[in-house]
Amino acid sequence: EQDVELTAREWSILETLIKRPGHIVSKEQIEDRLYAFGHEVESNTVEVYISRLRKKLGKELIKTARGLGYRLET
Length: 74
Prior knowledge:
Layout: H1 8-18, E1 24-25, H2 27-35, H3 45-57, E2 62-65, E3 69-72
Antiparallel strand pairs: 1-3, 2-3
């Protein structure tokens, strides 16, 4: 029960996952959200932000579905 500071991009990714709890969200869907910020997305950008979110929120919250995307545990 403590506040966690998230960047705009981290929040955007988390919000994308929150909207579909328990469902896989593809890397491409997440990249589409990041493109909304008007910058190019590097090939490993999603992985970097997912890693940062896991460090801030706990490793067990966001699961990787290899080759498919990411899922928010409910």
